[in-house]
Each structure stands twice: as structure tokens, then as C-alpha cells.
Amino acid sequence: MTLSPHARAGGAALVTVLFVLIAVLVVAVSAATAALNAEKSARNERDRHIALQAAEAALADAERDIQPLDPATPRAAMFAAGSALGFVDGCGKREDDPDLGLCSRVEAPGVPAWISAALAAEDASGAVAYGAFTGAVMPTGAGTLPARAPRYIIELMPFPRAGEDASQPVTNFYRITAIGFGSRRTTKVVLQSFYRKSVPPEGAAP
């Protein structure tokens, strides 16, 4: 059976239309995929910023912990001038003890506390939750708020200077490591800072 020229032209047009529809469909799917990926990337970036801000807040809270408003508290005694009281191997772990989250320095080739501490663990044993000693409050767990309160540990570090006896510290020098969480528990940011607390001259008020 021989098709008429009109029928052959109609068949060719149908094939052309099908190819055009396929091309449009491919472009539409690609555009939708790109839009979804961009939205996912934006959500991830926003969540990372939430975790970053929480970790920064934890660093600031640790500094307030080191420089307490009330120097008469048991916790403040841990940061007394030239003192290493309370800084223990593996960090203080009991929440009701004033040495919670305080870690002694581990000499090489040992693993330092900021690496070995399970900061992201659900119980976070050995880490200080935000506000635990300062009374600060951070809302968590809803909407764009952090899923969990940030936490930190504090390591006592040496700070000898030229001409000074390293066994008689003139300053209190600390390494603070903090972890913050995004609105999803899987999003984490870890920050670290060093904080030097000057020791007042002998006989001077603290």
C-alpha cells in the first residue's frame, strides 16, 4: 500500500512534534531538578549558619564561664589565678560537679581532649551545655532554632614566655572547643578559640 504525499507529511510532522515534546520535557525536568537542588543547597547553607551561630554562642558562653560574675562559686575556683584545680584527664564528666567539661592538656603523641571528646553524642558526657554555669538560655528544637543546645569543653594550656619559669604560670590560658547544631541534628559546626585570663599581680584584687 502506497501512502499519499499528504499522509507522509502528516507522519513526519507527528514525529517532529514528538521530538519537540521530548526536548521540552527534558528541559523541564532539568529545570525542576536544578531548582530543587538550589533549594536544598539553600536549606543546607541556612542550617549550617544556624549551627555556626550556635557554636559561636557556645564559645562566648565558655568565656563567661571562665570569667564568672560571682568569683565565690565552686566553678569560679576552677579558674583561679595560676590554678590547675579541676582540669583532669578525659575531662570532668559529672553534671553536678564543678569540673564538668574541664580537661587537662594531653602531651603528644597522646590524643588531645578536643579530638577524643564525644561532643556530638546524645548524652555529651564531659561537655558543658550552653548556660549550664552562666544561666544563659538558648531556645532550641522548633522551626529554624538549633535542634540541640550547643556545648563546649575547656582545656588548660601552657603559656610560658621568654625568661619565665614554665612551672609558675603567670597567666591562665585555655583552649575552648564548641559544637553547635543546626535545625537538623545531623548538621554540626565545631569551632575553637584560645582565651587568656591574666593573673593579677601578687597582692592585687582578682
TrEMBL record:
Occurrences of domain PilX/PilW C-terminal (ranges): 132-197
Keyword Hydrolase in record: no
InterPro entries reported in the protein's UniProt record: PilX/PilW_C (IPR025205), PilX_N_dom (IPR025746)
Annotated Type 4 fimbrial biogenesis protein PilX N-terminal domain residues: 11-60
Keyword annotations from UniProtKB, A to Z: Membrane, Transmembrane, Transmembrane helix
TM region(s), chain numbering: 12-36
Keyword Transmembrane carried by entry: yes
Protein name: Pilus assembly protein
Organism name: Massilia polaris
